[in-house]
Write a structure and sequence with these properties.
Aspartate Aminotransferase, domain 2; four-stranded mixed sheet; globular
């Protein structure tokens, strides 16, 4: 018999009653160190007082009016994102997939509005993950996500990860844009090297097409800069953001230059809930924290400490961990046993993590993590590896 909740998830048999910073507590009172962070969502930890206060204050005023009317919090968040990024304008939705849908539509609309309606195809990288809508699973191109849903939505061409020559060869007269995650998350914590991102910018400029970055997972401070592409010194034309932007409250955003957004006029796109007052209050509270002096310095200091400790564990447990990959506090352990088994061993010790492609375990702690929690996590990973070692050796 089917469960009341549609059984589309393979859930761990755990539920939590409350959270405190980097910790989650179940009904029995057991504490778990949260290095999953809701898949890079709860970047400021659980029950962050500034976010809680902002949500409570707005909840006592107005929850929803729709975009038939001005929403002051939306205007403020858009202005702040524009001031902090390459963008000139922002569209708000409720998720990363919605942000990507907007980005794809915007790229097509740009070429139509500028006299090149034949340009509508988007090139993506193998291993990508851009969401679960029909268009975004086609963009991701992964068989496990496409199976059973009929012919993939047309308009997407994939090339091997990081293959610049293949990317260049794939650009044709119908190409509208290149879409890439500066750091692949679902694909196994695979950063695109800075020189490759710069090369993609050059390809787009030479071909007269748009560059779209998917920073749904790697954005909002996760890599030690507000957005991951900043490390390469390049800017996209369009960027999708979500996850940490709401700190756990559903919100997504599509950021764009004025040039790229030329075709997006009244009636061309919309969202009933997108940019609602509750989400905007939380989004602005998140920016209050992330844009404060020293926040990103803290992320970089903690990421250096965590990575150093993880590299030490590779040396101590080579039969379990092959290596460490990633950037900032978006790190992955390439493991030898099945990553699901490693995650279960971590969970038994009291550490939560996330699976990734290429048999990787993702470590995505809250960005407010401290030295004590990092030391505790390293100890739990060490214990889990010791427990796994006989199995791995066999």
């Amino acid at each position: 018999m089917i469960t009341a909740v549609l059984p589309t998830y393979q859930r761990a048999d755990l539920s939590f009653e409350r959270g405190e910073g980097a910790w989650l507590i179940d009904a029995s009172g057991r504490r778990y160190l949260d290095f999953a962070a809701g898949i890079a969502v709860t970047a400021l930890g659980h029950a962050h007082p500034h976010l809680v206060a902002a949500l409570r204050e707005q909840a006592g005023k107005v929850w929803h009016t729709s975009n038939l009317f001005r929403i002051p919090g939306q205007e403020r968040l858009a202005e702040r994102l524009v001031a902090a990024t390459f963008a000139d304008t922002v569209f708000f939705g409720n998720s990363g997939a919605e942000a990507l849908e907007c980005a794809i539509k915007m790229a097509r609309k740009y070429h139509s509005a500028t006299g090149n309606p034949e340009r509508w195809r988007v090139i993506t990288f193998e291993g990508a993950f851009h969401g679960r809508t029909l268009a975004t699973i086609a963009a991701g191109g992964q068989a496990k996500h496409l199976e059973g849903f009929g012919p993939p939505v047309p308009g997407f061409d994939q090339v091997a990860f990081g293959d610049h020559d293949a990317m260049k060869a794939a650009i044709g007269p119908e190409t509208a844009a290149i879409l890439v995650e500066p750091v692949q998350g679902e694909g196994g914590i695979r950063p695109v090297p800075p020189q490759c991102l710069r090369g993609l910018r050059e390809l787009c400029d030479a071909a007269g097409i748009l560059l779209i970055f998917d920073e749904v997972q790697c954005g909002m401070g996760r890599t030690g800069k507000l957005f991951a592409h900043e490390w390469a010194g390049v800017a996209p034309d369009i960027m999708a953001v979500a996850k940490a932007l709401g700190g756990g409250f559903p919100v997504g955003a599509c950021l764009a230059t004025e040039r790229a957004a030329v075709g997006m006029v009244a009636g061309s796109h919309g969202s009933t809930y997108g940019g609602n007052p509750l989400a905007m209050a939380v989004g602005n509270a998140v920016l209050d924290v992330m844009l404060a002096d020293g926040f990103l310095d803290h992320v970089n200091a903690m990421s250096n400490r965590l990575r150093q400790g993880l590299e030490g564990l590779v040396d101590s447990h080579p039969e379990v961990i092959e290596g460490v990959r990633g950037q900032g506090l978006m790190l992955g352990l390439k493991v030898r046993p099945a990553n699901r088994d490693v995650m279960a061993a971590f969970r038994d010790q009291g550490l939560l993590s996330v699976a990734g492609g290429d048999n990787v375990v993702r470590l995505l702690p809250p960005l407010i993590i401290g030295e004590a929690e990092i030391s505790a996590a390293l100890g739990l990973i060490d214990q889990a590896c010791r427990a796994l070692a006989p199995t791995a050796a066999a």
